[in-house]
Model the fold of this input.
Amino acid sequence: MATVDVWRTRLNDLTFCKKIRENNAKDSKHKLQTDAKRLLVVFDSKLFVWDCSQTHLIYFNLRNVLSEKSSTCSSTSNHYQTLLCTDSPKFDVECLVMNGTGSHIALWGPGGITVMELPQRWGKYAEYEGGKDTVSCRTITICEHYFNSQKGVILQVMWHPGSPTDTTLVCLTSNNLLSIFDIQEPERPSQVVNLCEYEPGYTSSPSKIPFSCIVGENAVAFDFGSPVELKKKQKPFVDQGAPPKSCAVWPVYLVYGNGDIYVSYIDVNSPRPLKFPVNGPLLMHPPAEDNYGNDACAISVLNTMPPVVVVATCEGRLHHCLLLSASQEETTLQSESSFRVSETSTIYESPQEVSLYVYETVELELSLSVPSLDVDGSVEDDFTCPIRLLADPSSDDRYHCLHSAGVHTVGIPWIHQYETFFSQGADDALSTESLPCILEHLVCTKPMPSSPPSPVLGLGVLSGQSPGTMLLALTSDYEFITLQLSTKYRCQDSSLLSTSSGQALLSPLRRFNREPFDVYIRNILARTSSNPLLRSSQNTEMSQQECFQLLSRTTQIFREEYIQKQDYARQELEKRVRILLKQKELQFQNVQELQESRNILRDRAQGLADKFIDCQEKQEDMLKRLEGLMRKFQARLPVLSEAERSMKRDLETMEEQLHVYQRSLDQLKMKRDFQNRQSLSLDKGSHSSPSLKSNQMKQLKEVIKHEGDELADLMKRVNSLRMESS
Done:
């Protein structure tokens, strides 16, 4: 436990923790928190904390906490990064949700949803943007216009685990709508599941409210189960545009305020998603008169075999239910009660009907029970609060409960028996020994029912570090509580999405359609009521009490409609100025860094150009030396090369031709001598000897000169070839 104390001490001594505490202490807008929130996310030893006062995200690598052996943290282990939003949320953030690949974080509250795209990580320590202190992150506001007009309608937001690009959000609203958003098109949902559509007497008219909404029987929470494979029905004919043979859908289990549990199937992988009806309520065994509570607030589906469905109520009760296939009688009963027909029933087989078998019910101790001094000794605690359920990523048979009174951890060791039973087959007998769950009360922030609320603002599970699996809790005064979880649970490494195929997710193109800031300030300063100008009669008499009431009313309206709104607008303006100044400083820093990088690159380019010229000259010298070496090496070879043999053949052919030319030349010389003798004899024999004409003599001289030149060229070539061959 000494290591856990070191973790707690070093976390609370970090610079960003102190800074957050100081900012929230100075923030006049900071209100007393009454409900638990999830402003903390732990993902693969990376810690993200939302600063409510400064409206930005703090990133810290938890591996740096134990990087130093000493008790003091060095600059490296104390380094953190501030992630700024390009468009900060205008609503109160109550929950952070990280997607499976760690590329986006959803910031949501009852008033809106904002998705924050995390930048790339590189550098020595693989930090965002190479380790800058302040990083600007692109943000996407989901359906901003609708959520601004409908205040406080969001109940829960989750990332869809079956999204191909891990960019699909599922949102549950208080008007019984389950909306599926793709952050590439944030202004409108890609799918909408109306949970009231299949009620008896339902009408699609927007002016008429369903009966379930009137009595408060609305869906309050949901969770995803394991995907279900639906096979295509066999048909005698084949359609050219027929859908695929199978379809993978994800079941969404919804819990209503009255305790009923419904299931809806969502398809996000098909180009044209299929629509499935909302089935339910699911039968629960054994049945209860109060339907296991009328104030359900949360649901969680554990990744076990068979799946365990946990339903929480505001009174602090937890129901552990086994999700099993329904029998034929139960299937008939459910179909008669729901009478819902799927539009895809003619294409795919219907999903198998399921039922819930309640294994046990656990009651949490929200506030510590203090013995009463009454005669009967009974302790009555009427304190209730919503409960948030958080599955443990390091163990499938454990989850955590987060509420305004503290933190509980629940382990279900009995699920191991059912996993063994289903894996070995139905022939083996199932043990009838009843194993209760293990309930641990880790943090209590409301020891007495009369104590003021001090809820936990965040909860995260850190696994894979030296102390073991630990639980990080963030209190209302921004102090970290580090608790080492028990090792008596059956822990298995779950197959996280981060270990799947590392396909790079391309950042989708985004089109921002945000509300202008001046319009936002104008809406803040808009008044719903005002004080009229009093023009009463001179004979009017008012008592002091009436004057005081009028003065109080006037003062209250001025305070609520003018001072408070102007104060709130001033805070928003100051926040906007702080954000813009940070963005401006960050942009100036980026410009300076780019200029320095440009100068460095220019100098490096000049140096590389000089080196390239030197290398080119050296390469030419080396090529010349290599050519000389090759010539010398080739000259000393005892065997003639192919080129030399070819040249030898050419020389021999030319030598044979020279002999032919020599004989022809000899013949020409003999003919010339003969002609000369004939001409001389003719000159001596007669005074009038015949003579050649001038043109004939000219042609004869040209022929003889041409043949002589050819013979001279041939003799030169023969002599040169002989010299080369020798």
Notes: Residues 69-73, 200-208, 371-375, 491-513 have pLDDT under 50 and may be disordered. Residues 608-637 form one domain.
